[in-house]
Write a structure and sequence with these properties.
mainly beta; Jelly Rolls; six-stranded antiparallel beta sheet; five-stranded antiparallel beta sheet; 2 helices; 5% helix; 39% strand
Length: 183
């Protein structure tokens, strides 16, 4: 696994190797030993799978408030997505900055999104599927989000927005004096 930092502290890109032979391919999805510098003492406690049928659909931007804050490790199993992390951490030098990576099975790339960052993605191909590993369980009362189209973030989604859930459209817009989230 090749681990690379991004401009957002703690947002990490992990590239893995696809081994090919006459039978097909093999890819390591997770290795606690190789990712120990990234994960530290955290444990993966929940794994989720999402399917998004329509190109242009956006899911997110989601996060959980402390003490339920979670690190996510996100990988695309089918299709292609633009995966986005937004820094919401109080005191961060990159507060309200964002980082995006195109994820696909062919790239064998994973994005690591730390606590205090919101996560979302846009499906770039039909029937795109993501696998998420979480370091904290889902807690409804801790769940929150920011708008995918917030002008303070100015995320450049590559496709016209085709579909967004009512919940994701209902998140409040950030204010210029947003202090961030204490993580």
């Amino acid at each position: 696994m090749n681990i690379s930092a991004t401009a957002l502290s703690g947002v990490i890109v992990v590239d893995t190797t696809i081994v090919r032979d006459e039978r097909g391919t093999f890819t390591r999805l997770f290795c606690a030993n190789e990712l120990s510098a990234v994960i530290g003492k955290r444990r993966i406690v929940q794994i989720n799978h999402s399917r998004t049928a329509v190109p242009g659909a956006v899911r997110g931007l989601h996060f959980q408030h402390p003490p339920e804050a979670e690190m996510k490790l996100v990988r695309c199993l089918r299709g292609r997505v633009l995966d986005v992390a937004v820094d919401l951490r109080a005191g961060s030098s990159s507060l309200l900055g964002w980082h995006a990576e195109e994820l696909s099975p062919g790239s064998a790339r994973m994005l690591v999104i730390p606590e205090g960052c919101a996560h979302g993605f846009q499906a770039l191909e039909p029937h795109s599927e993501l696998l998420y590993a979480h370091t904290a369980p889902y807690v409804r009362e801790a769940e929150d989000g920011v708008r995918f189209d917030d002008p303070l973030l100015a995320i450049r989604w590559p496709l016209p927005i085709a579909d967004v859930s009512p919940r994701d459209r209902s998140f409040a817009l950030l204010r210029a004096d947003f202090p961030g989230i204490a993580v």
